[in-house]
Amino acid sequence: MPTFVRADGRIDIKSLTLAEIEAALTGLGSERFRAVQVYKWLWQRGVSRFDEMTNVARSVRELLEERFYIAFLEVVAVQASIDGTHKFLWATEEGHRIESVMIPDDGRNTLCVSSQAGCAMACTFCLTGDLGLRRHLRPSEIANQPLQVRQRLDAQYRISNIVMMGMGEPLHNLDNLLPALEIYLDEQALNFSHRKITVSTVGLVPQLQKLAESTPVNLAVSLNATTEEQRREVMPITRKYSMQALLDACRELPLKQTKRITFEYVMMAGFNDSLADAQRLVRLMRGIKSKINLIPYNENPARAIKRPADGVVRAFQHHLVAHGLQASVRITRGRDISAACGQLGKADPDAARVEGTSIAAIRIRREGEGYDASRFAFDDIV
Ligand code: SAH
After folding, report:
1. Which of 152, 284, 334, 348 could share a disulfide with 81, CB 3.0–4.6 Å?
2. Is 222 near ligand 1, meaning CB less than 6 Å away?
């Protein structure tokens, strides 16, 4: 696993797993059991200084202080929506802005977590894609989001679920995601059940397979289209992993008996919301343990894309359900604070003046910027 070292030579201890802290401490001549103590102070108490770790011997605390530092995200702003949704704007050490969104709903509190500053996937309809990839988040930054939200919100907002559906493509950052998931799941750290954690992806096939082999968390795939051509138009990653290859991989994933893959389907008026789309979607889902989550497009000034009328969404859902699929419609939350799906990282207040914001215009502009089939081949994605 990569280690993260600050300019002063100290290591980001919160990016280490328990096993790595153990190895580091024993390597420095300290007893092995100290690692669990330190780990609990970091993730259960959320301390910011080593000298708060009162049951750890002073000599060990001094050693820790010399070699390591305790990372926190800087809180830039917390906004509350009229519907109870809270958006947290954080800054990383170098000042990259990232966001997390807490969505309270009927006794559940779901935290939507970011995995990267910006995103490289360039889905034409998504505003985070406009930023491009700024940087992969470290394990400490992925795991600090729920820790720091816990520290700031009242007990009434105790986080029950985590969805990796904030900024970024989590599987593009798998090396840092896996240790962060370990911290989420470890009962000596954040202690979430794997049933309450969902990782959402555009569909990076080998990484999806590796994730399913290495952790039991829930999987969600952003499908968003029903033909290869249509999906290429909105999700350029389809040029690297075809929809067929993605769905074949989903069919074969080693899932626990009770698990289903969630397929997210952003509905865009006149683009992918026809009866023919619903019929194709039913066929595509054959042989896959799936549930469909329909997400009516969240309109924004930077795109000419429209949300389909409610009746269209309901008819689409009805067709899926009538053909034996599980299908729900995601209710938009936090729109007034730009916290809804696809709104994170919305930075440019002048966006409304951008001309030509249809799906095709954005795709053509992206291709002009080098996001075409040959140059934007996702070569760095193994
Ligand atoms: N990169 C991962 C994690 C982000 S999840 C993934 O794509 O799955 C964010 C979800 O919001 C994705 O399903 C995406 O398709 C959806 N989305 C993006 N922009 C949206 C918008 N304007 N309205 C509704 N959903 C949107």
Report:
1. 334
2. yes
Ligand 1 centroid to Cα of residue 108, in Å, is: 21
Domains of the chain: residue spans and CATH: 11-69 (1.10.150.530), 74-376 (3.20.20.70)
Percent of the chain with pLDDT over 70: 93
* Tens-digit pLDDT profile for residues 59-79: 999 999 999 999 999 999 999
369 is annotated as an active-site residue: no
What is the rounded average pLDDT of the residues 291-314? 96
Mind listing the pLDDT tens digit for each residue in 234-263? 999 999 999 999 999 999 998 887 789 999
Summarised one tens digit per residue, pLDDT across range 133-162 is 999 999 999 999 999 999 998 777 899 999
Please confirm, yes or no, whether 74 is among the known catalytic residues. no
Q: Ligand 1, from 222, 261, 265: best to mutate by most atoms within 8 Å of Cβ?
A: 222
The answer, yes or no, to whether any atom of ligand 1 lies below 6 A from the CB of 148, is: no
In the structure encoding, which two tokens stand for residue 268, read together? Answer: 């865009």
Alpha carbon 113 to chain centroid distance? Answer: 5
pLDDT at 346: 63
> Structure tokens of 130?
């406009």
Give the position of tokens 């992918």: 272
Tell me the pLDDT of the chain averaged across its residues. 92
